[in-house]
Amino acid sequence: MDEISPMRIPITMVFPPPSVSHATLVVFDEFDKTRTGRVPISLVGEMMKTLGEAPTLEDLEDAAIILDVEKNGHAPKTQFVDWCVQYRQVKRDARSVADQNRLIDARRSRQMTERDAELLRNRIHLLEREERRTLKRISEANRKAALMYERKKNANSKYIERHKFRSRRMKEMRTCREQNMVRKELSRAAKVRAESNMMHRKIKSANDVKSMSRNLAERKRRMEKEISDRNRRNHISVVRQRQRHLESKLKREQRRQEESEVEYRAKVVDEHVLQRMKRVHLSHLEEREASLIRRVENVRIMQTDALEGLCSVVATSPTDASLRDAGVKEKPMGEANR
User: Fold this and answer.
1) Residue 4's pLDDT band (boundaries 50, 70, 90)?
2) Overall pTM > 0.85
3) I want to staple 48 with a disulfide (CB 3.0 to 4.6 A). Which of 19, 53, 83, 186 is the partner?
4) In a domain, 161, yes or no
5) How do residues 228-256 score in pLDDT, each as one tens digit?
6) Long-range contacts of 224-231 (CB under 8 A, 24+ apart)
7) Cα-Cα-Cα-Cα dihedral of 199, 205, 211, 215, to 10°?
8) Residue 278, domain extent
9) Among residues 23, 8, 39, which one has the least CA distance to residue 239?
10) What Cα–Cα distance (Å) separates residue 260 from each residue in 89, 98, 103, 104?
């Protein structure tokens, strides 16, 4: 079965809230000493640090290329604000995708452990059923050997009847073996069909999940677009109110991010604990399987010994006059088996 790849969250451009744009404008005005609406490109790094960001050298080089639209070494206000918005959105989306991928990997590992445990339980059940069948065959073979041993002690007049009975019993055994083989083939075919149906159901459920995730992502993009349009239309009327609540909103946002990070770490820890528990359970099941395999091997050895004793009993003829004349007594079936 094909492995289902984790869903990748698309990075979409979402317009920032007016509070973030206002903070960027305030920092720009602080560095714009001449009030010309332009600042030198060399001050972009200090401006980003003032906004609480830590851009790398590559980010600053890209900013120098993007912001220097007039090729005079200065960045206009509008270009700087747009670039800051895009930079923050890209960094936020990158962190979100990395966290989502780690959680998906932990869940996938837990599902594989559960599937291995289920397969191991099925194998143990099959081994137990094989052990019961083998013990039943051994008891049947012992019963037949005892019956043949008792009949062998009768007179020569019953030799013909004993021979007919033995032939009839052998035919019944062959019939039983053939019926058992047919039942095994039917059970194997049923198992293959069940596995095929399960695979089809899993593929169908995976496709349903993919389509649902795509629909949710599309709906989310539409909602984000509507929200951004509504925010742009209402920006002028609510800008003063958002200026007063800028500090409180930033604090709430930081607190919410910390809570979400704590919750995510708790989920990851729970997934790892569950995975360790499943591994311990899997090791116990493997030990149980090894013990059952040893028991089946011992039972097979016992069956082989019983069949050898039966063959030795069948090979000895009751009409051997030389052995009776010599006074050789036949050993009981129990001693032959020992």
Assistant:
1) very low
2) no
3) 53
4) yes
5) 888 777 777 777 777 777 787 788 888 88
6) 224/12, 224/14, 228/14, 228/15, 231/15, 231/17, 231/18
7) -170
8) 18-216+266-316+330-337
9) 23
10) 18, 14, 13, 17
